[in-house]
Specification:
Elements lengths: L3 E8 L10 H16 L8 E5 L3 H5 L5 H7 L8 E4 L5 H14 L5 E8 L6 H7 L9 H12 L19 H17 L3 H15 L13 H6 L2 E3 L2 E2 L9 E9 H4 L8 E10 L10 H13 L8 E3 L5 H10 L8 H6 L16 H4 L4 H17 L12 E8 L8 E9 L1
Parallel strand pairs: 2-3, 2-4, 9-10
Antiparallel strand pairs: 1-7, 1-8, 4-7, 5-6, 8-11, 10-11
């Protein structure tokens, strides 16, 4: 089976684009990736397209990838449409990886594009609920409220009903954060340290939606969303697109000027029924990734983790094995996850600052790791970066993500 490499990366700045759509953002990201790889579109043998909400907002269902690619002159090749909530783009990469690994293709496009901003803000925020079990969403929220009543860290302020004026996922993350605070003694200040760190990283990233630094004090004083989360601890609504070109080892040998990054591991899985203190999906999948790559958590030079909120990063730092469970906040306070630290996390600014257009987010993580491993990250370059890890979760059923992908990339 062939080794698989990333040879092209393309990404537009994530932002709010009232005058842009899924199609034209995807076109730009694709052109950038092809240019980066030194290829023309005729070289592509397959494409995998990730999008979640185009059908909901503009009624384009079923053949999204074919519509996007045909409109820029790419046709005939097999196109696979991928929808897997926030893990859609990393799932598309996993499918391209498996296709090349199996010898089906030698070179493929992986593309994610998403538009979530809308004049109707309630529609934008309400769309996220589609990434849960909509038939049982009321009982799911009731379960979260019931669990919350057992925590020593309960709600500290009067709040509106779950999902009111915010994504329902913020309520889920807030519940998990309060559980962690009650169980391990983590604090709001530690969450603010994580958010402040990501704002520092985002300020160095010209493709980030938010490029303003914030102090810990400013994060804590920001508008409350749902306890313990403030606005700047949460990923914004936004739009964007990202793409990658992947190829086999035999194809790579034909390229004279390639700047490849090797995919050491590509692991995908689904959530399971468990209690709050059960084995987490991230723990399960990253063990498989480490075994496949032949490395351990402390070999990882940097990571892009799914931080839809600051608590998401705290939790995933633990799940990936970078520090003991219960010590994610302490690890952040130590400076280990900041540029210049032991193991920088979310050097792109993460979902909190780079932005989170769902169908593109997983590839934005890969873009960041790729340019870091090539040594092309400019002011936010991680010194001696050799191995990068991306963890991208999607949706929520019960206590954990409905889907997740973990990728480990290696400098060549």
């Amino acid at each position: 089976m062939s080794n698989v490499y990333i040879i092209g990366l393309g990404m537009i700045r994530f932002n709010k684009y009232p005058d842009r759509g899924v199609r034209d953002m995807a076109h730009e990201a694709t052109r950038l990736a092809l240019e980066d790889a030194g290829l023309d579109a005729g070289a592509l043998e397959a494409a995998f397209f990730s999008n979640t909400f185009w059908g909901m907002f503009a009624n384009q269902h079923s053949i999204k990838g074919q519509v996007v690619l045909r409109s820029m002159g790419i046709d005939s090749i097999p196109v696979t449409n991928v929808e897997n909530a926030c893990a859609g783009a990393s799932t598309a990469l996993h499918l391209a990886y498996t296709g090349i690994k199996a010898g089906m293709y030698d070179v493929a496009l992986v593309l994610g594009s998403e538009k979530i901003t809308d004049k109707n803000k309630t529609k934008s925020l309400g769309a996220y609920a589609a990434c849960m079990d909509v038939k049982n969403i009321d009982s799911h929220l009731e379960m979260l409220v019931k669990y919350s009543k057992t925590f020593t860290q309960g709600l500290q302020i009067e709040e509106s009903s779950p999902g009111a004026g915010r994504s329902v996922f913020m309520d889920a993350y807030a519940t998990f954060a309060r559980w962690h605070m009650s169980t391990f003694g983590s604090t709001r200040e530690q969450l603010a340290v994580i958010a402040s760190k990501n704002h520092f990283h985002g300020a160095l990233n010209p493709k980030a939606q938010y490029q303003q630094q914030m102090t810990v004090e400013q994060v804590l004083a920001d508008a409350p969303i749902t306890y313990p989360l403030t606005r700047s601890m949460c990923a914004p609504v936004g739009d964007g697109a990202a793409a990658a070109i992947v190829c086999s080892e035999s194809y790579l040998r034909k390229l004279a000027t390639a700047r490849p990054v090797k995919i050491l591991a590509s692991i995908m899985g689904s959530g399971a029924e468990r209690a709050f203190d059960g084995i987490d999906i991230g723990e399960r999948l990253v063990k498989q990734a480490y075994e496949k790559a032949g490395v351990g958590p402390h070999d990882i030079s940097l990571a892009e983790l799914h931080d839809a909120t600051a608590y998401g990063e705290l939790h995933q730092v633990e799940a990936m094995g970078f520090c003991p469970v219960g010590e994610g906040g302490i690890y952040a306070e130590s400076g280990a996850t900041t540029l210049g630290g032991k193991q920088p996390v979310n050097t792109s600014g993460g979902l909190e600052c780079r932005g989170h257009p769902i169908g593109a987010s997983g590839l934005a993580q890969i873009y960041e790791l790729g340019i870091q491993l090539r040594g092309e990250a400019g002011k936010r370059q991680v010194e001696n970066a050799r191995l990068g890890l991306a963890e991208n979760g999607g949706g929520n059923i019960g206590i954990e993500e409905a889907s997740m992908c973990v990728h480990i990339l290696e400098k060549v």
